[in-house]
Amino acid sequence: MKQALWDGVLSIVDGLTKSEPGYFSSRRAGDFSDDDSTVTCEMQMGQDDGTSLIYDITVSVKVREDSADDFWTGHSQHPDIYTLPSDANESRRVVVDGQHYSIGPGNSGGFGGRRFDIEFFDGRKVTTHDLWSQGTIPPKHRERYPDNARFAPQPERSRFTAFDNLHTEETS
Fold first, then answer.
1. Domain-wise residue ranges, the chain
2. pLDDT digits (tens, 9 = 90+) for 141-161
């Protein structure tokens, strides 16, 4: 993150030298905060009257965690177009390894219509070509949406071999 902050300082310095009156005369090295989330720097722009304008530059980044509460607990304003996880019919909700999916109505072809064989922990087995992903469930919402299924192992596909015995003659 330090490099990104320093790049921010240099960008501001570059912008000031192009847009503010005077001429660039000096810039001090940046001072980083203990947690490397902030850098401060001083820049001087000399003026024609012998004074300088001093710019105290501070660039900081505040990191916050977003658990997407609106997405995981809210309701879709357009349920006929899309559903949010809390809108999903329980029989169509699929949670595998902390990933949330919803089985579509069958006419949309989620994942490009790829086949999914799903084994629910309650004993149901479902095959669908209309599975939709809502992504990884944030830790604070995993109790609400525990794993309830697994993807059934797919049999290994054999390679198409019908043409393996055909030989071609080389012509000179």
1. 2-60, 69-151
2. 999 999 999 999 988 877 777
